[in-house]
Amino acid sequence: MTGIDRAAANAEAFRRMTAAEPVLVDILPARDVVPGMDRRIVLTSGAPLPWEDYEGGQREGLIGGALYEGWAGTREEAIALFDSGGIAVGACQDHACVGSLAGIYTPSMPVFVVEDRATGRRAYCNMYEGKSRKRLNYGTYDETVHRQLKMVETILAPTLAETVRDIGGVPLKPLMIRALNMGDELHSRNTAASLMFARELTPGFLRLFSKLGSHVEKTVELLTEDHYFFLRLSMAAAKVSADLAHGVEGASIVTAMAFSCREFSIRVSGLDGWIRGPHASVEAKLFDGHDASEITWMGGESPITETIGLGGFAQGGAPTLQAYQGGSYAAMMARNETLYDIVEGENPDYKIAAFGYRGTPTGIDLFKVLKTGILPVMDIGIAGKGGGQIGAGVVSAPMDCFRQAAELYAARYGD
Amino acid sequence: MTGIDRAAANAEAFRRMTAAEPVLVDILPARDVVPGMDRRIVLTSGAPLPWEDYEGGQREGLIGGALYEGWAGTREEAIALFDSGGIAVGACQDHACVGSLAGIYTPSMPVFVVEDRATGRRAYCNMYEGKSRKRLNYGTYDETVHRQLKMVETILAPTLAETVRDIGGVPLKPLMIRALNMGDELHSRNTAASLMFARELTPGFLRLFSKLGSHVEKTVELLTEDHYFFLRLSMAAAKVSADLAHGVEGASIVTAMAFSCREFSIRVSGLDGWIRGPHASVEAKLFDGHDASEITWMGGESPITETIGLGGFAQGGAPTLQAYQGGSYAAMMARNETLYDIVEGENPDYKIAAFGYRGTPTGIDLFKVLKTGILPVMDIGIAGKGGGQIGAGVVSAPMDCFRQAAELYAARYGD
C-alpha cells in the first residue's frame, strides 16, 4: 500500500495517547465488569501462549489462581483442569486488563475500573496484594498469599469501592502529574501518588467511617504502607491511554510492551497482534540474601507505563530509585535524556521538574529505535525462581521485536 | 581566654543539633504555653528593636496583632498603646518561638508545641494562615485576614489539637526525612510533608469525625491546600534543634538567622545575643503583576530551617522550586554543593537522593564562611510594600554579620 503518511499517523496516535483523561470510576469483581471473565478463566501477562508453554512462576501463578477460586482442591487437580480445558487461560490485554508481573486475574478478584472521560473507553487492573514479598503475582500461592488476597477482596476492595462511589470517582491524571514532581515515576515508585490518592478519598473515608469502622482504618494503612499501591492505577491509566492510541492506520508507535515467562512482545498502533522477541538482559539490584542465579521471568505488563512516557521514561523524576533498583541519579538522568531520540514527542502533561519541566519522552516510534539503536528501558520488579520478589532493576527491550515490527510494517504499508 | 578547642566545641554543637528528635505534642493558645505571653504582648521576627523602629509591613503586623486581640478598636488606639507601653513588643526567639515573615504572635493565637524527646526542650510556632496572599504575617490586617485568623483559632487549631492528642503526638523527623526525597526542602516547599502529616493524623480524624463533623473535613482541606502548611512544623522542629546546639562554649556554629524590617542578624552557639548586619540582595521571582520596586523587608525567621541543613541547604531535593522562586535546577544543585564548604558536617538524617543520599550541609561555621567567602543562602517568601506576598526568592546572608561575629569570638576566646 502506498500513500500512507506515517508522520501524520504517528502525530495522531500521539495526540490520542496524550489526550486521555483516565478516571477511576469504580472497583468491581472482574466477573462483573471485565469482558469474557464470567466463566472459568485465569488471565495472565504477555502475548498469549498455549497453557502447556507457561512455566515456572507464571505457571504456578495460574495454578494458584485456580486454587484461589476453589475450582480445584489440589495443585494436581488444577493442572488436570487446565490440561483438559476445564479452566481456560487468557491474555490480560485481550480483556482490556494489564498484568503486574505474572498478572494473575480470576473472576472473583476486584479490579479498578478506569474510564477515559471523553470516549468512555475502559481499562482494568487488579489490586496490589500488599508489601509481603510473597504474592500471587510473583508466582507464589500459599496460606499467607490466600489470606492477603481474601483481605483485598473482602475488606480493601469493598471499602475503596464504596468510598470511590461516595466521592464520585477520582480523576487520575492530576494526581499523576503532581506525583512526577514528588519523587515518583509511577512504575517502580508510587509513594506520592498513593498518599495523594488516600488524601482524595479522605472526605469519603470520614463519611463512611461510622458505617464501615475499622475497615476504613485498615484501608488507609494499606494504601500508604509502601511504594506500590498506586501502581495498579497508574497501569490502568496507562492501558486506557495506550489503547486509545492503538489502531491508527500507518502509525509506528508502540502501544504495549509485555513479558511472559517465554518472551518479550510489543504491540504497534498500525499493526495487528503481538510482535514477539526474546527476553533481554536486566540490570538488577537484589534484596539481601539473593543472587543473580535466582532471577527468573514470570511475565509483566507494567511496562504499559513506559509506553505512555512514565516509569523508565520518567526516571529523572525519581532519584530515590537508585536505592531500590541500582544505578546513580546522574546515570538515570542521562538515560532518560537519550529516550527523547526514540519517541514521537514530549508529553504535554507528564513533566519532569529536574529537566526544567520538559515533558517526558512519549510515544516510542519503532523506526527511531531502529535508526538510533537506543532501546526503550523499563523499571521492573525482579522475581525469584523460588517465587516472590527478590529485587528490582532496569531492563531494555530486545531489538529483535523492533526489527520484526519494521518488516511487518513494510509488508503492510510498503517501504 | 586560651585553651578553647574550637573543633571539639563545633563537633559537640553539631552533635546536639543533629541528635534532636522533635515531636509535635500539642497545639495550645500561646498565652497558655509560651513563656511570658500571659499579658499584653505581641511578638515579632528578628533581633529585638524598640517599638518606634519597626516600620512598614512589620509595624502594620504588630498593629494588626493588637487589633486582633481587641486591645484597641482602631489603628490609632493601637499605636498609642504601643507608644505608651500599654502593649509590649517582644522578639519571637526570646520566647522559644520562631516567626514566619513578620512573625506576629499574640496571646490568643494557637501554637504548635514541639518537644525534643530526649531533653524535653520545647519550641513553638504559630500556624499558617492559609493560601490567601493577604496574611497578618505578611503585614496585612483586614476583615479577610481577621476571618482567616479566627478560623485558624476556632476550627483548625482545636481540631488538630484534639487529633494530635488522640494519636499521642507526631514525631516530625521521620516525616521530614521522607519529605526531602519527595520534592520538599522544608522551607519554601512542604507539599509532601503536609500530605504525610495529614496521613499521620487520619486515624484520629476518623475517630473524631462523629464528634467534630465538618471541622475535620475543613482541617484536612487546610492541611493540604497548598505547599506551606507543614512549614510551621518544620520551623518549630528546626528551632528546637538549633536551640539545643546553642550555648556550647567555644563553638562558632550559627544557631539562628533572622530578618527584621531593619536588619539581618545571626546567633552563634558560643556567643551571646544577636549579631546584627545589613540586609542582603535577593534573587526574586515575583507573582504576575508585581515588580521589584515593591519588594520590602518585614522580618522573617524561617531561615532557622537553613540553620539546621534544610531550605536553601537542601535545594537539591526540591527541583520544583525553580518554578516558584526562579533559577534552574542545575543552578540549585550547584549552589547546594558549594554549601558543604561552610558547614561542620553532613546531616546524618536529612539526606538528598539526587546527591546519592549525601546528608545536607549542616551547621554553618562562621569561620568557614569568612575563609571561603561563600554565604549561606535562604529560600524565602517575598513581601510587598502594599502588604501580602508578591513572590519568592533566594537571599544570601550579609558577610558583615560573620565579620562581626569573628571579632566577638576573638574578643571572647582569643585569636
UniProtKB/TrEMBL annotation, chains A, B:
Transmembrane segments: none annotated. It comes from the Bacteria. Signal peptide: none annotated. Pfam families: AllG. This is DUF1116 domain-containing protein. It comes from Microbaculum marinisediminis. The lineage of its organism: Bacteria, Pseudomonadati, Pseudomonadota, Alphaproteobacteria, Hyphomicrobiales.
